[in-house]
Amino acid sequence: MKLLLVAAVALVDADRRVLIAQRPEGKQQAGLWEFPGGKVEPGERPEETLIRELREELAISVKEPCLAPLTFSSHRYPDFHLLMPLFICRRWEGVPQAMEHQALRWVEPARLREYPMPPADEPLIPMLRDLL
After folding, report:
1. Spans of the chain, pLDDT less than 50
2. In this structure, are residues 30 and 47 in contact, taking their beta carbons and an 8 Å threshold?
């Protein structure tokens, strides 16, 4: 079974809310909400992936020292196994904009379960709820 490495980030604002993004139509799991991030390309470190993806998907700039590893998710889908480290970030430049997603929401950690998420994202919620 193929192993897919995907890096994700919990952007946390001054009010301790987390940014989630809605997957666009035409992609797998369209309409579900996820933590921003993306596939780690060959030769790329997860931190580099997040810096690239956040620039492309949200039009924000993040410096590597602002990305702190928090936890990870390991989930078996029918066609592949996903391993997803989750980083936390409280500092970035710019205002997040939905460049590739249908919508963005700033959500209090206690309310994250109100948004349907892919199975690999769901186990990350308790850690964020406890931390924030």
Report:
1. none
2. no
